[in-house]
Recover the amino acids of this structure.
């Protein structure tokens, strides 16, 4: 893993980041596999702000082939110190160069970074309010398990859907959690 910042002068005297190999990673989201090793970006104690930069992983094609995943699914993920409260991994918007086997994303400060592949499909357990019948805008609160930020849920209409809590023909469908994955078709 490489941490890069355009302006190394942003570090004050005595401030630094170090990249440390991880012997193991925090539990991965269901459906995700690590490609290569994970790393901890550690800040010196006197760094009190996020120093902007990028994180890059160069991976081996063989690692992708062994895991039987598509290179377009490779996404840099972040587990920050504030994530230790159980909020977990965050998928970062990732730029891929499959010719050079390189995946990069904006850094989020100190924390654990890993290159993950696979798809996590959230399970929607409840939506509140369960129904809205007037034309007023309504905010839906969606709860469930298996969510991996950023997550999107599409409301899909099909005449094949029975009348349910969203009304005749409507169904919530979790989209793939990979930022590069196209959402399902919407009507």
């Amino acid at each position: 893993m490489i941490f890069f910042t355009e302006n190394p002068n942003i570090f004050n005297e005595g401030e630094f980041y170090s990249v440390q190999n991880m012997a193991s990673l925090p539990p991965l989201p269901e459906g995700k596999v690590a490609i290569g090793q994970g790393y901890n970006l550690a800040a010196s104690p006197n760094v009190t702000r996020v120093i902007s930069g990028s994180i890059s992983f160069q991976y081996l094609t063989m690692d992708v082939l062994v895991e039987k995943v598509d290179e377009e699914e490779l996404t840099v993920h972040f587990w920050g110190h504030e994530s230790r409260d159980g909020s977990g991994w965050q998928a970062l918007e990732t730029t891929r160069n499959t010719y050079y086997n390189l995946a990069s994303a904006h850094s989020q400060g100190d924390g654990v970074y890993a290159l993950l592949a696979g798809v996590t499909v959230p399970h929607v357990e409840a939506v509140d309010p369960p129904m809205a019948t007037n034309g007023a805008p309504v905010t839906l609160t969606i709860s469930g398990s298996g969510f991996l930020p950023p997550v999107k849920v599409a409301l899909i209409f099909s005449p094949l859907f029975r009348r349910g809590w969203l009304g005749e023909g409507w169904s919530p469908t979790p989209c793939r959690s990979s930022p590069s994955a196209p959402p399902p078709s919407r009507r």
Observations:
- Confidence is low (pLDDT under 50) at residues 176-187.
